[in-house]
Specification:
The chain is an all-alpha fold. The protein is built from 19 helices and no strands. It is elongated, with a radius of gyration of 29 Å.
Length: 338
């Protein structure tokens, strides 16, 4: 190489870096483009170009540049990390997850990476994988109440209520007045018909945080269960009072969160038990509007329509239930009865 060419390339690189340092990104990108015309495999130029596009939130050109960086230097973990961040922002979560898997192999104990990976897995609804990472993180930070609570929520969502209860108790061992954990523990104990303890926990949660819609939901659910039990032993008056209390709790929960499909569904169930079938039907419709894949809401709507004598639409609801859940024997039985 002629010395003049060497100094020219060096001057171009210095010029590009000066533009970048001073925030003149358009000029910097132009300078890096000139360098790459002369030297297409200049790793630093590609990396700096990628980082400028990233800073400007120009994700597609940044992604293209990082791909070339990684062709030139496959083990550049910082570039892999930044590419994963870009893929997340582009909504390409499965690709981002593959990148984070690679990063985790190279640095399995990196807490920052594990937390970022958790966010991707949550979006992809890969709850069992989230739980595995939480177990790793909680070994390092066993006093993390927030993580124990989130672990409990995931376990509840998976139907593992016994394990969820243990997680909520961990939370309360760290933060005895954690309203979310009090409410969730109260709900689980209520479903086990431990009503006195359940109501105490739920009321304590609401005293600490009256705006906790989960606590109001739990109160509604447990009073509804108690009402059902009272009906079963022919204590009709007490059952109706329990259902009215449940209804009031669900109304309060909906004041705080009217976009939660499960609240509309549960409120509809209680209204039906109170023989307010038209109001129940409206709530089932609202629940279905918010979550069309809820087979239980379709089934309950079908029951109400059948009760109102609207047989054809009731059958359509039961058919919809079977589309969503082919194993739903009650819906199949209702269709055969028609």
């Amino acid at each position: 190489m002629k010395l003049s060419g060497f100094f020219k390339k060096k001057d171009l690189m210095q010029e590009a870096q000066d533009y970048k340092s001073s925030g003149k990104y358009d000029r910097a990108l132009e300078a890096y483009a000139n360098i790459l015309k002369i030297e297409p495999k200049n790793l630093k130029a590609w990396y700096d170009k990628a980082s400028i596009h990233l800073a400007l939130e120009q994700y597609l050109p940044a992604l293209d540049a990082y791909k070339i960086v990684l062709e030139l230097e496959p083990n550049n973990m910082k570039a892999w990390h930044e590419m994963g961040f870009i893929l997340v922002n582009l909504g390409r979560l499965e690709e981002a997850l593959s990148v984070y898997d690679k990063l985790q192999v190279s640095d399995p104990g990196n807490i920052k990476l594990l937390n970022e990976k958790v966010m991707i897995l949550k979006e992809l609804k890969k709850d069992t994988e989230v739980l595995k990472i939480y177990e790793m993180l909680l070994e390092k930070d066993p006093a993390n109440a927030k993580m124990w609570f989130e672990k409990g929520l995931i376990l509840s969502g998976l139907g593992k209520e016994a394990d969820a209860l243990l997680a909520y108790e961990k939370v309360l061992g760290i933060e005895p007045e954690h309203p979310g954990a009090l409410a969730r523990k109260g709900l689980i104990l209520g479903t086990r018909r431990q009503y006195a303890v359940s109501f105490d926990l739920l009321e304590k949660a609401l005293k600490i945080d009256p705006s906790n819609w989960n606590a109001w939901y739990g109160k509604g659910k447990v009073w509804g269960l108690k009402g059902t039990d009272l009906s079963a032993i022919d204590r009709k008056y007490d059952a109706m009072k329990a259902f009215e209390t449940a209804l009031g709790a669900y109304k309060k929960a909906l004041e705080l969160n009217n976009l939660e499909a499960s609240l509309w569904f549960e409120k509809g169930v209680i209204l039906n038990k109170l023989d307010k079938v038209n109001d129940a039907l409206k709530d089932f419709d609202r629940s279905i509007e918010l979550n069309p894949a809820n087979a239980n809401a379709w089934y309950e709507k079908g029951l109400v329509l059948k009760e109102l004598g609207n047989e054809a639409n009731a059958i359509n609801c039961f058919k919809k239930v079977l589309e969503l859940d082919p194993s739903h024997t009650l819906a199949r039985h209702k269709i055969k009865q028609s």
